[in-house]
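Entry 14. Structure prediction run on the chain below.
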Amino acid sequence: MTTVERVLIIGSGPAGLTAAIYTARADLEPLLVEGMERGGQLMLTTDVENYPGFPDGIMGPELMDNMRKQAERFGTRIRSSDVTRVDFAEYPFRIWVGDDLYHAESVIVSTGASARWLGVPGEERLRGRGVSACATCDGFFFRDKELVVVGGGDSAMEEALFLTKFASRVTVVHRRDTFRASKIMAHRVLEHPKIDVIWNTVVEEVLGDDGVTGVRLRNVVDGEERVFPTDGLFVAIGHTPNTKIFEGQLDLDEAGYIVVSEGTRTSVDGVFAAGDVVDHVYRQAVTAAGMGCQAAIDAERWLEAQRA
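Output returned:
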């Protein structure tokens, strides 16, 4: 006899672990497949000071470890592997973890989204030590510092404007001679007294040992290179939702995010989605956790309805 899970959760960021806590407390005995890179983007964040309940802040990995322990305390079973394939056309749903096949009555997808990085020398080494992809997460730590933001879309404009609350100076580096952001956002950046723009330029290297001290820039028109001093680099060139294995299984929008309605319901009855795999607007740990709670309650009510 094949065991059929009541709830199978894919992903172990704030959304997935919160869903696990709620479904476990509802006696649904969830199985959470956390993936080889467990904990989501907060594992790359040093100090988290905006998550409620921690007045002195908490390290990102510590917060995720606490959530994981809390989920296990209520009976969540966790498998540290990647989901390699899903089949939502058959019921119970089929989910492959490596070469192992699982069946599930309901599924909660919380695979998150990955920030796009520049892929230049020094960037990965200095992540969390001056290199960031989230101004609302890390901007507070750069009070009275000079910062560089890379990008030309609305996200980059939002990051730059937000950082002016803390930084003494913000410089936007963009590879073209015009922004692709909306006119109103571009206008706000261009008119802001604390923001400068360097056009037709890309970052070739991030400099520094224990923290960012500067970036090596290259002008794409004449090829000229120079070192630009800065205390931090914020990369704002977009996010990629981790939805590749769901293509052809769930409805996705043009950017690849899972489409949900009536809370966290996806296009397949019995499959729910939460967190950054759905949300391309807020992308915060607390909003992801809230959606994880919603998905758990939606799944619980849906399972009850099937037995009515």
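The CA atoms of residues 200 and 222 lie 9 Å apart.
Filed with the rest of this week's runs.
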